[in-house]
Amino acid sequence: MGPIIGMTPEKRAETPGAEKVAGLSQIYKMGSLPEAVDAARPKATLVNSESADDELTNLNWLHESTNLLTNFSFGSEGLPIVSPLYDIEGDDVPSLGPSCYQNPEKKSATSKPPYSFSLLIYMAIEHSPNKCLPVKEIYSWILNRIPYFATAPTGWKNSVRHNLSLNKCFQKVERSHGKVNGKGSLWCVDPEYKPNLMQALKKQPFPSKSTFYTPPASPQSGSLSPHYLSSVLKQNQVRTLKESDIDAATAMMLLNTSIEQGILECEKPLPLKTAVQKKRSYSNAFNHSSAMRLHESDSLATSIDPKEDHNYSASSMTAQRCASRSSVSSLSSVDEVYEFIPKSSHVGSDGSEGFHSEEDTDVDYEDDPLGDSGYASQACADTSEKGQPDKKMRKQSCQEIDEELKEAAGSLLHLAGIRTCLGSLISTAKTQNQKQRKK
DNA sequence: AGAGGGCTAAACATAA
DNA sequence: TTTATGTTTAGCCCTC
After folding, report:
1. A52 vs A45: CA distance, rounded Å
2. In chain A, what's the furthest Cα-to-Cα distance?
3. A271-283: per-residue pLDDT in tens?
4. C1’ C15 / CA A294, Å
């Protein structure tokens, strides 16, 4: 067992009056760390006058940016994402990298995020391609995105593990025997509790821009500086990047508005689940999840504790049902997604909001099984039917754009775990396509 | 005032 | 043996 650097009861007693400071428990704990640790920590986290910013419940998050609420929104799965507008509207392009918390003016950079560990873990797992992460990767995700934890006491890792173990929202999945690398198990989100987590997530105050950022996702993308992402967004507002260049969080950032719109539309016609359905067995729900699919065909956790503690209220499950379905279900055909996506982008491309990656995209997925005639293809065909002389060229150009768009949208959707919630819209789009073709 | 959620610390066990 | 991981318990604070 490795030593855990943190506050001991003895050291607590050495901090007179600290416990009496209402709402500053987190700070006093930090401020009373061993001096060696304090010396390595930015002063901002230690100064009492600024300690209020470190408080988890401090609402100064909301005051630091006048347009905070417009800059942040929730992604397709309810995960908080940074809206592209965030980068565009600011006079100074906010740094999305670690430098943002080295700026002493941005106190919030060293502030605690307004998310509980459970939510942070949830976001980390959901942003992973496999919807499963080892503890170490969860650490990394949090460290990469929450500057606070870069300088926080190491006890937060203990808290992460504690949450993983105690919170039944998270399920341990044994690694496959074939996998040699790595210690421990993979952790996944129990789809049964995804709605609860998402609801809890949405209840949180929006973070300040410098507290939640999206760094380059992988070592191979190290050449992609945060400024690159900012500049790209600034130039094109929304633009699709290569999958290797951005992580799922960024992908969801780019896709946010259109997906949310789709989900919102999807929620309308869906009836509420019955109580019986809500009470369906855990094992069924867990096995049902395609989001839990693993590359290594990992076996499921062997022990499932049905205890009801450390859980979010079941009352929220119905409300988020559709969103949950979007992440735990799968489309029967990937093409269906592709056929749907252009419609979303088309709807959003009228100047208001949406997915604007039709042109000038860098997406280059090789293994994309795109079929023909998606919605966008049909839209292009419609324009070509207006008697243009360069009909063929235009059609070809449209098809290229369509393919790029569909590749980008489909891949991003795949990352975001968007699935069956779009089914109704897909079928609607299909029907419309068929009608238009008949015309 | 009490319940519940969340965080932190700590001890311990286990696996790599 | 060391380290990382996982489990459990306890105590505290905060919000409702």
Report:
1. 10
2. 85
3. 333 333 333 333 3
4. 39
